[in-house]
Write a structure and sequence with these properties.
- Helix 2 (71-84) crosses helix 4 (106-114).
- This protein has a single domain (69-284), classed as Rossmann fold (3-Layer(aba) Sandwich).
- The longest helix is centred in the N-terminal third of the chain and has 14 residues, at 71-84.
- It is an alpha/beta fold.
- The strands form 3 sheets. A 7-stranded mixed beta sheet has the order 8-7-6-9-10-13-12, with helices on both faces.
- The chain is 28% helix and 26% strand.
- The protein has helices at residues 45-54, 71-84, 86-91, 106-114, 128-136, 168-178, 216-225, 241-252, and strands at residues 4-5, 17-23, 26-31, 37-39, 42-43, 96-100, 120-125, 141-143, 153-159, 179-191, 212-213, 228-237, 268-276.
- Bound molecules: zinc ion.
Amino acid sequence: MINVEIINCPFCRENNAEHWAEECGWKTVRCRDCGYLYVNPRPSVQIRNDATELGVHASGDDLDISERRIGKKVDLYRKALQSLYADVWLVNQPITWLDIGAGYGEMVEAVKSLAHPNSRVLGLEPMQPKVTAARALGIEMISGYIDENTPKCRFASAINIFSHIYDFDDFLLKVRCILEDGGELLIETGDMGNVQERDQFPGELGLPDHVAFASERHMTGFLERNGFEIVAVQSLRVDGLLFSAKGLVKKILGRSTVLSLPFSSPYRSIRIRARKHPDVRSDQE
Ligand SMILES: [Zn+2]
């Protein structure tokens, strides 16, 4: 029997939610007050941390064999960074950049390809098998989570890790501590703002490894109440061919995927570039 915890809405802290979806025996609920989607009950913190370090799912399944390094991601990230950080590449000064939850290091590679050659670009990743795989490719990686030994940096990024994070307020306060004054954070995650019903979301929700699903309003809310100001927001489609192909692979492997058709879903992904504000705004808590 897996240990679970029952929680209030992680965004507005109210306890007023309705059933939204079920997957692999886990339930996602929607907060009636703020619309936030979250898994409740969810695996306990201890179960979650043990599973992450071993690189297995919190539900006890083996690591999804379709998950691996995706070289195409380097090109996709590079293209996105080129425009979103055009001002940084134009100045062409050495920078420090830490990618949090770096996976196989694709984002680190993309940043390195654009940044001044004397820059320090590295990844932080809790899953040991991924750290080992990235290091074998010559990518500088730190194993684990943000702590007092994490190097300070000018830029940080957190790409598609939001849904895995239990306490996003706490996460952002930790990111603040490793950012230099005026430093910046890039977040990319799904945007459920226009997704009303479960069947509008293409593919699996990925419960219980994914524990929360936000919209742009929630993301900017989290950032602003934890001392960040928004620099830029990009919205992008994610139900294109790559995403559908991934869903198809999982279907073949016998997972309970809703097969998605390309370009049919209101689901979006968002990238938010945010700057560390000198003070955390206490009025929003
Ligand atoms: Zn709420």
